[in-house]
Design brief:
- It is found in: Nucleus.
- This is Mediator of RNA polymerase II transcription subunit 24.
- Belongs to the Mediator complex subunit 24 family.
- Keywords: Activator, Nucleus, Transcription, Transcription regulation.
- Its main location: nucleus.
- By secondary structure, the protein is mostly helical.
- It contains 50 helices and no strands.
Length: about 1000
């Protein structure tokens, strides 16, 4: 009914030649107030009347334009109706329509939800209509080899509209949404484009409008990169020096030395995406990071970095190359070009290479590349080339070293680690009954000098640590006491039991039982570890240990150990029974001593008798004393500490000579007991201690003082030494993630220049990987909201806010890409104790301000001992950091919390530092994370972006940012995107009208 009235009104307007304003006045008498003309098909009625003849009626088209300006009809309805016009033989009607569209395209927008829902489909249909016109013209030229004047004019008009369409970012964004909403209709656009391309190719026709072919391709294959987005990081070229790779590897090698190569590959890929590194630059940074870390190792106690550098780094590079190499590139079989380029860059760092040559007493480049040539990272030509470039400098340094008579070089320890591991594993896997004596010799030889550290490092980086442990456990099981066995066989068996027990205890103490042992192992050693061994932040209840004891066995042991000569020749108590029941013996001795029923001399005699039998017995006794000390007051610690100290007293020469391989076993037992002792009672000076890198240090110094000491070293050097990484890990456990992240962020905000801020931010980001999930949670829920909300100083403005936002985004992306919870339990030596235990540990202990004396000796890889073969697939490595579809806790709760805080920040339309921080955070999240942050963007509050658009200038927020925020595959995501785009468009038009 209304449509008939509208048509009659058009007829009257035409007859009486109404002006546009007259039409506007009279049409409002037909359409109810507040109702859109789209309800009554106003645009259909007007275009139907305008296009009746062979030419379009300009007056009626003017009425339509006036209706658009008066918001009586929507642009979506008009464009959708134009796209339905199929009389392509009426060239004058088409040219009039194109002229009309050309005049209205700059004002395309939406005002209501109904219009927003129509616009994407309308734009897709309109672009398809344009493509159809262009295809008709090119097909006609292909057939006739010429164009009429009318067709030539029509083509010019079509090209002009297409150009204006492509240059309108709002329309392109709506088209991109429409591509997801109406895939069937959009496929017609591509069909028409294919027709156009074929016609242009066959006829060699060149459209008169320059660039129109690229415009057509953009419309047919619209993608998100065609949509403008303001990039906050204007420096697209990576920084000259990276301060991120070395600290990140220092932390990861400390926490995850046992992880396989694909773990590190995924970590480096994440960093490569964030930093936009090329393969060459990434390889250079990895190699340089290894040398920098090695250069900070001053003794030979720690070998893990050397093993990592010579075993794992080549495999990391090979996998990265395989994953990042384009399939079309030719691939040399005997070398990797990017590795060669990386060494060219490395040779410019003469100071670092000079230091490494001096430490290793050799040309380190030549030594390293000789091994890498076997693995086809470089070839012999490259080895000779790089060795020659460094040969003169290396010779001078070696002469100075010999003249200075310096200590033995690290390289010798590397050479010593080449063979033994395979031999040890082979011997352990042989028939126990046939190789007992040989096995004892091998295991005792392992403990000579630094061999144990070297073999352990090689086993760790090769991924054979669990194999080593499982075979040692089997050896310990086979070495259990056999009743009635006497003579040499009994001595060998007891020594094997003792040495295997000590080696296993040292490994568990170093890496944690959760890393090297199975959850429900039923061997004696595994049961002892679960019930009796005291691990840091995994304390054992000493009462439970006492409950396991047999009173009869305890009484017999007390009687035996009280005698001057404790041989227990006629006893049926086995060695493993003694280990389990020693807590009862030690508890009885301790209580008797405290009650003065035993004298100090008696106690010393009993402890010496325990130690004489087996050194593993003193370790078991210390484990109980350590558990006991964890539950008593400080004033009650003196006697237990004295008892532990007695176990550290060297035996007399007679005792040393009475047993086989005493020196090696004694040294290892002392090392194990000292670690337990230091964890219980901090020594006054750290300089007197020599612990391995993996040992957590304890100190009475305040946390802040320790932190300042280690940070000053890091800030001066620009990198994190293995010792500094260890201290930072201990500070994390003592102070908690919120405290440590707050301290690190403060260091970043103290910087005055952006260059220094970015350097510090990279180091802080790397250090955050000590526990990336918990530190990210602390950043988002504690540190950042407090800084932005409560501090109105310059550190909440640019560039401080930008760097802070970038740190948050980097941490979020890394936390998002960490592997599943099962692997996460193995991610760190952070000792998964409950919060109560961690809090108690934080209150009771202060962490050392300085690292222990650490050394690094390296291990190189033989051809028969490859870490991972070429069979490792790209898919396996990619799965290490695949983006999850659903966020884990605590990351999800942290993101939701920070978004709620942001919602509060942008509640008003005023632009403030808080609002700008929100903008930077969201922009950097999209810019750095791209498609991988989609699970995070799903948590954005519905109104956050709308509020931000109202507060921010339209020049800062572009359509590319808006379209990247939403999942356009689902309807709700498309609706939100179109709503934000239309709001952005209307704000933009309003600003333009004000400027006019």
């Amino acid at each position: 009914m209304k449509e008939n009235k509208i048509i009659k009104l058009v007829h009257v307007a035409w007859r009486e030649r109404w002006s546009d304003s007259q039409w506007g006045i009279n049409i409002k008498n037909v359409i109810p107030r507040g109702v859109s003309g789209d309800v009554y098909n106003l645009s259909d009625c007007l275009l139907q009347q305008a296009l009746i003849g062979s030419t379009a009626n300009p007056m009626v088209l003017n009425y339509l334009k006036h209706s658009l300006c008066a918001h009586l009809v929507s642009y979506a309805a008009v464009l959708r109706r134009i796209a339905k016009y199929e009389h392509f033989d009426r060239i004058y009607c088409l040219t009039s329509l194109l002229d009309f569209v050309d005049s209205i395209l700059d004002g395309v927008s939406c005002r209501t939800k109904a219009e927003e829902s129509m616009l994407p489909g309308a734009i897709v249909s309109f672009v398809d209509w344009l493509m159809h016109i262009f295809a008709t013209i090119t097909t006609s030229y292909e057939m006739n080899r010429e164009l009429s004047a009318e067709n030539s004019y029509l083509l010019d008009q079509c090209c002009a509209v297409i150009e204006k369409l492509v240059k309108n970012q709002f329309i392109l964004a709506i088209l991109f949404v429409g591509r997801q909403e109406a895939p069937d209709n959009y496929s017609k656009i591509r069909e028409n484009y294919a027709t156009i391309k074929t016609s242009l190719t066959n006829s060699n026709f060149t459209p008169p409008h320059p660039g129109v072919e690229k415009y057509l391709q953009k419309l047919a294959y619209i993608d998100v990169h065609h949509l403008d987005m303001k990039i906050l990081d204007v420096h697209q070229v990576p920084e000259p020096i990276s301060y991120c790779v070395q600290p990140l590897l220092a932390v990861e090698v400390l926490l995850n030395p046992c992880n396989d190569v694909s773990y590190y590959v995924a970590e480096m890929q994440m960093l490569q995406r964030l930093k936009k590194f090329s393969n060459t630059r990434l390889f250079y940074e990895i190699i340089r990071a290894g040398f920098v870390s090695l250069s900070s190792v001053v003794t030979s106690h720690d070998t893990i970095w050397g093993a990592f550098m010579f075993f794992k780094v080549p495999q990391i590079i090979k996998q990265l190359h395989a994953l990042n190499r384009a399939s079309v590139e030719p691939n040399p079989t005997d070398f990797i070009p990017e590795v060669v380029e990386a060494f060219e860059m490395l040779l410019e760092d003469n100071l670092l290479l000079d230091l490494m040559d001096s430490k290793c007493s050799c040309n380190i480049i030549e030594y390293l590349l000789n091994d890498w040539a076997k693995q086809h990272l470089v070839n012999e030509v490259h080895v000779k080339h790089f060795a020659a470039q460094r040969d003169q400098e290396a010779s001078l340094l070696l002469q100075k070293r010999e003249w200075g008579n310096q200590t033995q070089s690290i390289i010798n320890f590397i050479i010593r680690a080449e063979v033994p591991l395979s031999g040890v594993l082979k011997t352990l896997s042989a028939d126990y009954n046939k190789v007992q004596e040989a096995l004892l010799g091998v295991l005792c030889q392992v403990l000579v000098g630094n061999s144990f550290d070297l073999i352990l490092a090689v086993a760790t980086v090769e991924g054979r640590l669990k194999t080593f442990v499982s075979r040692l456990i089997q050896c310990n099981e086979n070495s259990k006491q056999i009743p009635g066995e006497i003579g040499k066989a009994s001595i060998i068996r007891s020594t094997l039991f003792d040495v295997s027990f000590l080696i296993l205890t040292s490994i568990v103490q170093t890496y944690g039982s959760h890393v090297v042992l199975t959850d429900n192992g039923d061997s004696f050693f595994e049961k002892w570890v679960r019930e009796c061994m005291f691990e840091r932040n995994k304390p054992k209840n000493h009462r439970n240990m006492l409950a396991m004891c047999d009173d009869n066995i305890v009484d017999e042991l007390l009687l035996t150990f009280s005698k001057p000569d404790t041989q227990m020749k006629s006893s049926n108590i086995t060695w493993n029974d003694i280990c389990i029941n020693l807590p009862g013996v030690i508890n009885h001795v301790l209580i008797s001593w405290e009650k003065d029923t035993l004298s100090a001399a008696d106690v010393k005699n009993i402890l010496d008798n325990i130690k004489r039998r087996m050194f593993s017995f003193s370790v078991c006794a210390t484990a109980y004393l350590r558990a006991y000390m964890h539950s008593v007051k400080d004033k009650e610690l003196l006697k237990p500490l004295n008892m532990i100290q007695q176990f550290l007293t060297p035996p007399c020469n007679e005792e040393m000579s009475s047993q086989e391989n005493v020196k090696e076993r004694l040294g290892l037992s002392f090392q194990i007991i000292r670690k337990m002792q230091y964890d219980a009672h901090p020594a006054g000076s750290l300089k007197s201690r020599s612990l391995t890198l993996t040992q957590n240090l304890v100190s009475r110094n305040p946390l802040v003082d320790q932190y300042k000491d280690v940070w000053s070293t890091i800030a001066d050097n620009g990198w994190v030494s293995p010792g500094a990484a260890q201290v930072l890990e201990s500070l994390l456990h003592a102070g908690g993630p919120a405290w440590l992240s707050s301290q690190l962020v403060e260091e970043m905000l103290k910087c005055k220049y952006k260059k220094d801020m970015m350097k510090t931010m990279d180091i802080v980001f790397a250090i955050s990987h000590l526990d990336i999930e918990r530190i990210t949670e602390a950043l988002l829920t504690n540190v950042v909201p407090a800084i932005i909300n409560n501090r109105q100083e310059e550190d909440t403005n640019l560039p401080h806010s930008y760097v802070l936002a970038r740190l948050c985004v980097y941490c979020i992306i890394s936390a998002l890409e960490t592997r599943n919870q099962t692997m996460q339990k193995k991610r760190s030596r952070s000792h998964d104790g409950d919060d109560h235990e961690l809090n108690n540990a934080a209150k009771m202990r202060k962490i050392a301000p300085d690292g222990s004396d650490n050394s690094c000796s390296n291990d190189f890889l033989s051809e028969n001992n490859l870490l991972l073969g070429s069979s490792i697939t790209a898919m396996h490595a990619n799965n290490m950091r695949e983006t999850p579809t659903q966020l884990r806790e605590p990351l999800q709760s942290s993101i939701q919390y920070i978004f709620k805080v942001f919602q509060h920040f942008v509640a008003t339309d005023e632009l403030s530092p808080k609002t700008y921080f929100v903008y930077q955070f969201i922009t950097l999240l999209v810019e750095c994370g791209k498609d991988r942050v989609k699970p995070i963007l799903k948590l954005l509050p519905p109104s956050l972006m709308q509020c931000l658009l109202k507060a921010m200038a339209a020049e800062d927020i572009h359509v590319g940012l808006i379209t990247r925020l939403y999942d356009l595959r689902v309807n709700i995501g498309r609706q939100a995107a179109v709503s934000d785009l239309c709001l952005w468009r209307n704000i933009k038009l309003k600003q333009q009208s004000i400027q006019l």
